[in-house]
Write a structure and sequence with these properties.
Length: 521
């Protein structure tokens, strides 16, 4: 570990210890969402699609129930940026008319071919672009900007018959692991409104967790799907890069490596929905994942690590999460017949340096200090921090923190960047070889459960457990693993590139082991 990174880590660990009583006071009384989802919304998207198909329920009934529930919970969550409820109801009525006509004409099967989600509502992370709705992505100077067309993944989901309800909150330009910005404010975690749902897909995580969304189109560039999924007790999959199109995502970079970091992917409440969503969102690339090939658990090899390193500079992984990882490995062995492998990925101890050295060498990273009125001039970071503290800032605190890291490279000498980029490639090669076509790797998503608002700055080292796998370009799934004092816990299932189906198959088994999603109580 680099000396600068070690010193910073120790400082943050000391500050976290000193400020722990303050954060304890903020969260000493858990404030769960006081609205339970209606029974209809306790079902998977797959089940709801079947119910619409058989006539058990109408699309209008389903969409209306979701809209009413979102209206009930959003005052507590602050997750919705902009909605299209009236248009969604019109869409649902059109679906019901087409189903009625198809039944009369005997063409019901033809109607549902290619439309496996016909009549089912869903929600969209604002950055993924839903035509006609806000596309500001929490950025003050972008206020009022709207998407001119659907992002490609959103388009494919709508083509499959699903009905979009709204776009949800993100950090400013998705640059943060807590969902808060100066334009829309902070989104709350439904399991405890005093805590964050994570970021940058925190709006989607919060809505899913309380049953206010059937499924989500989200994105992940440094844990942005998996961390909110973990904090909110739902499933989130970061696909292999290049499988799902990122066209239409805001922000985007011109760097040729950007598509290797950013992935668009699904968040769901039930594991059975993940393969369906991946099949739809992948479009013409679905063949690369071989999703329809069965996965035999008896053929799976399981590697696992409960933390990356014991360094004093990093905050330890919560012991309850470590126990869940060990229990998951035992379950896969004892109940599913999988084989446990003892080989570890010791290179993960350099996760912070590898992630920063590779990520922040991309060109065209948003300059959060650029003056919108004069692009050739940068604002002073320190002046902007002071303005923020006195309520006059034009950038979020997370955005300013991102600029600080971007400028100093987390105190990693520039001469060391090539060394860590080489280590990243070596680790990717090793992981690809070791996991192969039948291996998975169980690992933390973050170092603890959802924390109090604004504590992310002290717990930032926990991001290393998710961010590195964007750098490596491997698929990874956040899987709910029970609760601790009412807060969700999660583990991460990782596989070699293009082996997404292994992640999804293991996630489904672990849903049985841990009970999967449970609404806030």
């Amino acid at each position: 570990m680099e000396v600068g990174v070690r010193i910073l880590g120790v400082v943050l660990r000391i500050l976290n210890l000193l400020l722990a009583p303050l954060f304890w006071l903020k969260t000493r009384e858990r404030r769960p969402l006081p609205r339970a989802p209606p029974p209809l919304l306790m079902r998977s998207a797959t089940s709801l699609a079947a119910a619409v198909r058989t006539g058990e329920i109408t699309s209008e009934e389903l969409v209306t129930t979701y809209i009413n529930h979102v209206k009930d919970v959003n005052p507590f969550l602050n997750a919705v940026v902009e909605e299209r409820y009236r248009a969604a109801l019109e869409d649902s009525k059109a679906v019901d008319r087409s189903i009625a006509d198809a039944k009369k004409n005997g063409t019901l099967q033809e109607l549902f071919e290619g439309k496996p989600l016909l009549g089912v509502p869903f929600t969209v992370k604002e950055s993924c672009s839903l035509s006609g709705l806000s596309n500001a992505v929490g950025c003050l100077e972008n206020a009022g900007r709207r998407a001119t067309k659907d992002g490609e993944a959103v388009r494919l989901v709508r083509e499959a018959g699903a009905i979009p309800l709204l776009v949800s909150n993100t950090p400013e330009l998705c640059l943060g692991w807590e969902t808060t910005n100066l334009l829309r404010g902070a989104t709350n975690n439904p399991y405890d409104l005093n805590r964050t749902p994570g970021g940058s897909s925190g709006g989607e995580g919060a809505l899913l967790a309380c049953g206010a969304s059937a499924f989500s189109v989200s994105s992940d560039i440094a844990g942005s799907i998996r961390i909110p999924a973990a904090f909110c007790g739902v499933f989130g999959h970061k696909p292999t890069p290049g499988i799902i199109s990122i066209e239409g995502h805001i922000p985007t970079l011109s760097d040729e490596n950007f598509p290797n970091f950013l992935t668009v992917g699904p968040m769901t409440r039930f594991a059975e929905d993940l393969p369906l969503m991946m099949d739809i969102m992948a479009g013409d690339n679905k063949h690369k994942m071989k999703l329809h090939e069965p996965v035999r658990m008896q053929d799976i090899r399981v590697h696992y690590m409960t933390e990356a390193t014991k360094s004093l500079a990093l905050i330890n992984v919560d012991k309850n999460i470590q126990e869940r990882i060990v229990n998951a490995a035992k379950y896969l062995k004892n109940e599913c017949g999988a084989k446990i492998c003892e080989e570890k990925f010791n290179e993960l101890e350099d996760s912070v340096e590898i992630s920063v050295s590779v990520f922040f060498t991309m060109k065209d990273i948003p300059n959060m200090l650029q003056d919108p009125t004069n692009p050739k001039v940068d604002k002073s970071l320190y002046v902007e921090l002071i303005k923020y503290l006195f309520g006059g800032g034009t950038r979020s605190l997370q955005g300013l923190g991102f600029s600080l890291i971007n400028r100093n490279n987390l105190f990693i000498p520039e001469s060391r960047n090539e060394y860590y980029r080489s280590k990243a490639q070596q680790l990717r090669d090793k992981m690809t070889k070791v996991l192969g076509t039948d291996g998975v790797f169980l690992y933390p998503v973050f170092n603890g459960p959802a924390h109090a608002h604004n504590r992310v700055y002290l717990l930032a080292s926990g991001v290393m457990y998710s961010m590195l796998h964007n750098v490596l370009g491997v698929p990874a799934t956040a899987v709910p693993a029970g609760e601790l004092r009412g807060l969700p816990l999660a583990i991460q299932v990782i596989a070699a590139p293009n082996q997404d189906r292994l992640c999804l198959a293991v996630a489904k088994q672990l849903e049985k082991a841990f009970g999967g999603w449970r609404p806030p109580q």
